[in-house]
Amino acid sequence: MIHLEPTSLERDGIRLEPLTLEHHDAIARVVADGELWNLWFTSVPRPEQAQRWLETALEGQRQGHMLPWAVRDLATGEVVGSTRYHDIVPAIDRVEIGYTFYAKSRQRTRLNTTCKLMLLAHAFDDVGCKVVGLRTDSFNFRSQRAIEAIGAKQDGVIRHHQARKDGSPRDTVFYSILASEWPDVRRHLELRLQRHAAEG
User: Fold this and answer.
1) pLDDT tens digits for 134-178?
2) From its phi and psi, is residue 169 left (phi > 0), alpha (psi between -120 and 50) or beta?
3) 103 in helix, strand or coil?
4) Residues 6+ apart with CB under 8 A from 57
5) Considering the entire predicted model, what is its pTM?
6) Exposure winner among 28, 87, 110, 198, fewest CB in 10 A?
7) How much is the CA Rg of the chain, to the nearest whole Å?
């Protein structure tokens, strides 16, 4: 049975550090970079909602079903995003990766690939997960492409699954990566990072 504790993960100048209330101002700056909350199909908070968003994430951690991180660029020292494990189910060695957002100025860079590689490696290699899930809104086509580009397989769609932040019902697309698939996914992500480095 898996057991998760807050821990820092670091690779290639990016650090995932356990989220705390002290990250409030940084998170407010991140979401303001590109006004990320305007994407109606995401759960990104407005800057004035950052405190409540943080409290909800940390309450999920206390209850044992979430493990949230802030994403820091070590070259600049700036927090540039956030991500977390959620829907943690120790009895079946399962976590999901989600609640991910990055400052608009850092999107379409190596950042997401680097973070996903760290999160997957920690889940499979350190924690011993048997499966890692991902999910997204059926209208979040960019997120679906990004998840599929990682190498996750689509499990299906649950229609009328949950409420969006505006109250409308959302259809949710579910994906997963099995432990047996992780070696190939790792190779794929490592190659993507090598290509980013070559292009950079």
Assistant:
1) 999 999 998 999 999 999 999 999 999 999 988 999 999 999 999
2) beta
3) coil
4) 19, 66, 68, 84, 99
5) 0.95
6) 198
7) 16
